[in-house]
Amino acid sequence: MGFFNNIFTSQPNTPKESFPWKELRLMDQLQAIVNDSKDRSQVIFKHSTSCGISRMVLRQFESQNKELEGSVDFYFLDIFANRPLSNELASIFGVRHESPQLLCIKKGSVIFHASHGAINDIPLEKYR
């Protein structure tokens, strides 16, 4: 069992500290995200800490988008710790909840969203 345990638990369920994540935990942050999206793109990654697929997509996303630091604001939402906030996101932006899920907000609206493996197919640099 040690082999399988290492495969499925060797990566942490949390985002990398070296990636420029802002933790999304408060309802008040949603209005700030909408306001800040007038000047630059706001990206929200909704992550399920109990899902191996979500963990894999998160790691790929972090490695593919590190160079966008400073030109995009990145928010990380742990959906288990903050499910009401995840539901509020779905309500405000009219995007059905999925996990993992990525939302890109510009000028107060979601300009695209993706879930699961499709998250890493998005050329995020186009949406700065």
Description:
- With 128 residues, the protein is an alpha/beta fold.
- The longest helix is centred in the middle third of the chain and has 14 residues, at 52-65.
- The model is unreliable at 1-10 (pLDDT under 50).
- A 5-stranded mixed sheet has the order 1-3-2-4-5, with helices on both faces.
- It has a single domain (2-127), classed as Glutaredoxin (3-Layer(aba) Sandwich).
- It is globular and about 35 Å long.
- 33% of the residues lie in helices and 22% in strands.
- The relative contact order is 0.21.
Topology:
Elements: H1 2-9, E1 21-23, H2 28-36, E2 42-47, H3 52-65, E3 73-78, H4 83-93, E4 101-106, E5 109-115
Parallel strand pairs: 1-3, 2-3
Antiparallel strand pairs: 2-4, 4-5
Mean pLDDT: 89
Structural class by SSE content: alpha/beta
- CATH class descriptor: Alpha Beta
List the uncertain runs: 1-10
Q: Overall 3D geometry?
A: globular
**Gyration radius over CA:** 14 Å
In short:
This protein has a 5-stranded mixed β-sheet with strand order 1-3-2-4-5, sandwiched between helices.
